[in-house]
Design a protein that fits this description.
It is a single chain. Helix content is about 0%, strand content about 55%. The protein is built from no helices and 5 strands. The chain has a 5-stranded mixed barrel. β4 and β5 form a beta hairpin.
């Protein structure tokens, strides 16, 4: 046992902002592509999460989000940086 001195690494993901209609909150869509376990066919899966946003990200922006403590009922992620602005 470490005794709670060392924190585990936080998950970092990249996604696209699909909604920015809330105050200081954005909805981020994360997509992953993987091969089916048996058939080997490529599968796309998406997951949407609510993320705390202090950077002012807009719909269409690509953002990097990091796991954080629960900030509200649905928010467990935080926007770290805006990777690419929407065209």
């Amino acid at each position: 046992m470490t005794g709670g001195t060392e924190r585990t690494r936080r998950k970092v993901r990249t996604g696209v902002v699909v909604s920015d209609k809330m105050q200081k909150t954005v909805t981020v869509s994360m997509s992953r592509r993987f091969a089916h376990g048996f058939y080997g066919k490529q599968i796309n899966r998406t997951k949407t999460v609510a993320a705390h946003d202090e950077h002012g990200a807009k719909t269409g922006d690509t953002v990097r989000i990091v796991e954080t403590r629960p900030l509200s009922k649905r928010k467990r992620w935080r926007v770290v940086e805006i990777v690419e602005r929407a065209k």
